[in-house]
Write a structure and sequence with these properties.
Chain A is an alpha+beta fold. Helices cover about 25% and strands about 30% of the residues of chain A. In chain A, α1 packs across α11, α2 packs antiparallel against α6 and α2 crosses α11.
């Protein structure tokens, strides 16, 4: 049935919504695809639901093609399974928790590893039952600290999540490869460029993991790639550390008055002026900056960590967040921020502006057996034998020629520094360039973590019980709608690729004559009969300008204008993306448009 | 693609699940359609999800056919709109409530009147935009006190809910009629017998309302019908009250010792033995029983109410629950139970076993201006002039000839008595019979309640602002799957009607010969090519008995057995519901089965 604009539940907006900071959000709201219900929580209007359905259908087909079987789990789940794996706690504030009328604890699931593991445990007992790939397309919940950008980072969102179960590592590798292939095909069919990057798996645990990032300026994720083919998200990039240095010729550490050196630059200038280095001038890279970080654990506990890094680098909090938990012996999601004045006040052993590890290994301010007791972590560039200018823990004074390994040692090495364009790829494939992207999918080799925690075992060919190995694979389905809007729009509105467009053809009657409306209605009906999905702008008293504007805003790939050409027996067929238009005889319009829609 | 049982994520169970009290629950779990995740919360396995999808498709088609437009709202919603309509409170303990990380209140929506009202308010401004019918098929939440019977009464469940918006009452009536028609078509296509009964609308507010009940012994709802066509749920049945009686000849009330009369029967016997009535013997219907009820309001407050009714009737708590709130001046869902010992102890004005309204209108124990202050409500049969034996509020004593209107008066009349088979239909259409049913759908004329609360107005033809009038219409989609399983099963398992079956044909290879499996696989593939949806039991070492048992448990309408008949070139085609089987030449099997599936 032809959808008529006079009937469709739609109202386009001239004004951008006040809270919309990215184009996809702005246009999806203005074009009547979605509406905000609460921060990070959206309603789908008819057009949006249609696009969402087309995206879901593509995901479903490709998942079925690799042998995925669709199931559907509840969103409201009991605490117990998440308690066993400790994720009830590890998710921290990101988890929506609630109690039922009997005071039992429940959560709104952000992901379903536990439930799938328990289901397979409940159903299967033998290696012969495996592999099995299960998936669902389902509403997920995550209490984001900063929901933003409409559907790009919501608190209620739709994901396809799948889980593979295998008896051995080779099986897991096959499952991982199958999903990787399916994901690349899904994004190709959606028309969504993605880069597969190495990732750290964060709270999910497990070993190998890749993200599929859609490169765009509005993306929240930064990733790197080299001309030689390396790609990783910044959290996963490892630093090419220099070899350790022979420090036998380095002078003893010496503390000097360094008044008026509030910044690295002034410190370097002061050092070169009064304490020049014998071989070359001091640079910012010779200073050891010690940054105090506050880490909030999943339990809510706040821990202070100090990170030492070359003064020409900045700390990247997202990189810190990805791995600092390991150094504190905690699993799960931690939140990281610069330490507050209160944090510093609570740690009087640190002299603000002049923090350093101390000048002797046997009585350090920071580092192994330090007097402050704080965890001290170093950037990988601070290798043994390197000599540094750093704070002396005395106001107005710095220590010079402090040498790593000789004069100070840390509790660990952390990838904390920002990655910069031009840094070397860890695999030797050349310098890195940086780009931003939206995380569209994520695949993980979970391994045996969840199966172990929840005791999922099967009998192998020898009748021996073995722990099952798992993979978990997610695609942001609602996010894909936003990413597509981001990738396919111009200043006039949306411009959907054919595979996901809400309609194939947008028929428009422009003019006042009844014969124009009659011809347009007939054409719309004929196109539907020919198997196309048609929206018809039949509004009787709306100006052509408004109709054109709405068509461009809605973004159906092809518009057919039935208007003043009708007297000559032609209609105008216009491509939304290119703006190109062609006059086509009305009698040939159906055949022509079938060809256009089929892409021939 | 043919679904093979060696690949399908399925494990049938021989044993009934311990918590399953009805056939649908038992069989859906045993046949691997669903699995319990928490009380009243279920996961859908591949077969269950397929049936659910078929039910959803039928609902969607019929909703679209009446001009319904599909949208999708969040399940997680902010408190504010529900606060405006007072449902945040009125839902009481049935609502799942939670807080986000910023301590803002949210709920898991049990129904979406508020959100739809606000959406239309946000989009539309003129009567010309109306009518609009919007619907969604969506996951709903309700923290049931007693989740039971698997999918029949869950806490997370799937509903189709729709909402109509009209500028005038005639429009609402058309919307209501359109939905009523669509519902009848949906249930007919599903193969689900339903009875449309008049209903009280409970917490939803509004005026006209009907329930669609599927008659079955396992239903939780009791309804009545008369041969003359009256049908209502018991909560909505009104009593045919007798005309008031001239009490001028009734003796004055007199209090008598009535020792050893702990029951109505003993009281009647005592009355006839020692205080005989002049015209006929006393019967239980002449005694006025006063039942003390505890009502929990949505706010959690507990109120005591006393209900007087003829001694031959019992109180029906569900009927009380439906309307007692009105008498207490509260809206929303109340919970009702018999008063506890503690409740009675807290009301010493009531003498347990001998409760009565008192013997004088100017100093009543119960009733208008009573000394207890409790609300006293009477059954409609207690009309003015009727004379009663009832408690004297003194241990061991009753009052006789206490006359309604003359000696006592209540605070109101309530439909509190159980409805009995043989009671007269209120519309004069004859005696009622009682039946049990499952509520499959419910349609309401909400009227202007929500539009008024949330200020949804449009301009009418004269440019005057008018409040929109609404309807709300629900179908239990996941519940329909259970009701179908309830309606279509036998002792061996499920027996789906064709329109919702997970597959059209179940092909089975029985025997050991490779040629049998080859022929069965080929037949399955040919049937799929012919457009049928096929499951193929290809398990190589499973006995025919187990395969037959599983086929009967799974309930695909038609089974094809490829086995020993193959040497004679025939396969056996068996109807699951009737058990009838026919030998069909293998060469004709595809054509034959196409006919069977098409119903010809």
């Amino acid at each position: 049935m032809v959808t008529r604009l006079t009937q469709l539940f739609l109202r386009t907006l001239r004004e951008d919504p006040a809270d919309a900071d990215v184009a996809s959000h702005r246009l999806l709201v203005r074009a009547g695809y979605i509406r905000r219900a609460a921060p990070g929580i959206y309603s789908w209007l008819p057009l949006g639901l249609k696009v969402l359905g087309r995206v879901e259908a593509i995901v479903r087909e490709e998942m079925n093609a690799i042998g995925g079987q669709e199931v559907h789990f509840p969103a409201l789940l009991p605490r117990e399974p998440y308690e066993v794996t400790n994720r009830w706690t590890e998710y921290g504030e990101n988890l929506f928790r609630l109690k039922d009328r009997r005071d039992a604890d429940y959560l709104l699931a952000p992901t379903h590893e536990e439930m799938f593991t328990l289901l397979v445990k409940d159903m299967y007992t033998s290696y012969k039952d495996l592999p099995v790939y299960l998936y669902q397309i389902q509403t997920k919940y995550r209490d984001e600290a900063r929901p933003r950008a409409g559907l790009l980072r919501g608190r209620e969102f739709i994901m396809k999540d799948s889980y593979s179960f295998d008896a051995d590592d080779e099986g897991l590798q096959r499952a991982y490869d199958a999903h990787r292939g399916a994901y690349l095909r899904i994004f190709a069919r959606l028309g969504l460029e993605v880069v597969a990057v190495n990732a750290v798996s964060g709270a999910m645990g497990g070993s190998r993991s890749e993200e599929f990032l859609h490169p765009t300026e509005v993306g929240e994720d930064t990733f790197v790639r080299s001309a030689g083919g390396y790609a990783a998200n910044v959290e996963a990039v490892t630093t090419v550390a220099p070899a350790s240095v022979d420090a036998s010729g380095v002078p003893d550490a010496h503390i000097e008055d360094t008044p008026d050196t509030p910044t690295i630059d002034t410190l370097v200038a002061e050092a070169n002026a009064h304490f020049p280095r014998e071989d070359r001038p001091w640079t910012a890279a010779d200073t050891l900056k010690n940054v105090v970080i506050a880490v909030t654990l999943p339990t809510g506990e706040r821990r202070i960590v100090v990170i030492g890094l070359p003064g020409d680098r900045a700390v990247d909090l997202k990189r810190v967040e990805a791995t600092v938990g390991e150094h504190l012996g905690v699993t799960g999601e931690v939140a990281v921020e610069a330490a507050s004045e209160a944090d510093l006040a609570a740690n009087p052993g640190l002299v603000k502006g002049y923090i350093g590890p101390g000048v002797a290994l046997d009585a350090p301010v920071l580092g192994t057996r330090s007097r402050t007791g704080l965890t001290y972590l170093l950037d990988p560039r601070v290798v043994d034998g390197t000599r540094w200018i750093t704070g002396a823990n005395q106001a107005g004074r710095h220590v010079f020629d402090l040498t790593a390994g000789r004069d100070f040692a840390a509790d660990g090495v952390i990838e904390a520094s920002e990655v910069r364009a031009g840094d070397q790829a860890p695999d030797g494939s050349g310098p890195l360039e940086l780009a931003r992207g939206i995380e569209m999918g994520h695949i993980f080799q979970l391994g045996r973590k969840y199966a172990e925690a929840l005791d999922l075992q099967v009998l192998d060919a020898n009748g021996k019980r073995v722990i099952v190995t798992m993979g978990s694979y997610g695609i942001g389905v609602s996010r894909a709608v936003a990413a597509l809007a981001e990738a396919y729009h111009d200043e006039k509105g949306l411009a959907w690729p054919r595979n996901v467009a809400p309609f194939d053809v947008h028929v428009m009657a422009t003019g006042k004559g009844e014969e124009i409306f009659a011809a347009a209605a007939q054409l719309a009906a004929d196109l539907e009969s020919a198997g196309l999905d048609v929206v018809y702008d039949d509004r009787p008293r709306t100006s052509p300008g408004v109709k054109f504007g709405d068509a461009e805003l809605l973004g159906v790939p092809t518009t057919v204008v039935v208007g003043r050409g009708l007297v000559d027996g032609v209609v105008e067929v216009k491509d939304r993306a290119t703006g190109e238009s062609t006059d086509v005889p009305l009698a040939e319009a159906v055949e022509h448009l079938r060809g256009v829609v089929a892409g021939s």
